[in-house]
Amino acid sequence: MLGKNLFLYQLGVGTPTDMIGTIHADTIGLSAICMVGILGVGSLVASSMKVDGPGGKMQAIVESIYLFVDDLAHGQIGAHYKPFFPLIAAIFIFVLTGNFLGVGPYKLFEEIIPGWPKLNAETGPHAEAFEIASPTTDFNVTLGLALVALIVYLGSGFWKHGGHYAKTLFLTPMAPIEVMDMVVRPSTLALRLMVVITADELMRGAFLLMCPILVPTAIMGFELFIGVIQAFVFALLTSIYIGLTVAEHH
Amino acid sequence: MALIPKETADQLAGAGESVLAIGVLVGLGAWGGFWLDGQLHTAPWLAIVLSLLGMCLGLWRMVAKAMASDKQGKV
Question: Is ipTM over 0.90?
């Protein structure tokens, strides 16, 4: 689980303030690795893409992901899904990449690789190893994604229905539920992803330390599956919320 | 190329979200209650009352959404 043992100011980058709070260098670094990875793969595929005839394996994989997210967004949002497709695709791909990044026997590497970076090394045996994990184990990342989804689905309601959407939010019998949803929806999105991925990582870490042969491989396979499901659920719920607000009957 | 049928996905997502929403509302009520108890020195009563209120709101939300989705045929 990230965000607990490497703050930006420990790297001498700046001091935390009461306004901003602590900034987690490990989360920022691993999120940046995800983004660079996604952009790198995208650039590679785009540069070698074939429009006529079958492309390579990477193109096939990227096209499958594109078609999957296109189908998801179109099914939930309806005919006007195109403006929202980049957001749904970005959420799905970033969460998927982040979840996959955390799947690896890092705990074992921390124990057996000499010279693995340690934090607070001057404390000797109490020094904590630098942790590599999925950025989605940090609540800041998942909450950030959830708040983006909240802003987009509220904004899409006003974009589609104008002032009438404000009446739906505040002046109908369902208004208290709609107002509660502005807190509940992003909270459930963020917490679900963070808790599931953190639980997966804790389970893998425990098995790596108890029985490092074969069993963690099965756990890691299960984690990959859960990573796909959680990315799908996050993107699905975001597109459902947007679909509900842009629906014609509002 | 859907992973699972749309209707099934909608229902599963809605059901999961409703249940988790109850947890979030209870958590928010408890957190608010603890904070208010600290300010007003009424421990543990406000924490208990606001947790129960959060649970009631969560259940009400779940039932209202289920009834609304029955009328509209959507989650």
Answer: no
A60 in reach of chain B (CB within 8 A): no
State whether B24 and A174 contact (CB < 8 Å).
no
Residues 6+ apart with CB under 8 A from A206: none
Q: What is the pLDDT of residues A183-201, one digit of tens each?
A: 999 999 999 999 999 999 8
Cross-chain residue pair A233–B13, CB shorter than 8 Å = yes
Structural domains of chain B, count:
1
- Closest CA of chain A from B11, distance in Å: 11
Q: Which of A180, A233, A236 sits opposite B57 (nearest CB)?
A: A180
Residue pointed to by tokens 């997210």: A69
Query: What SS3 state is found at A81?
Result: coil
For B60, name the nearest residue in chain A, comparing CA atoms only.
Answer: A177
* pLDDT (tens digit per residue) in A53-104: 777 888 999 999 999 999 999 988 888 899 999 999 999 999 999 999 988 8
Question: Is residue B36 in some structural domain?
Answer: yes
The domain in which residue B62 lies consists of: 26-68
Is B56 domain-assigned?
yes
Q: How far is CA A79 from CA A71, A228, A247, B5, B27, in A?
A: 11, 26, 10, 18, 38
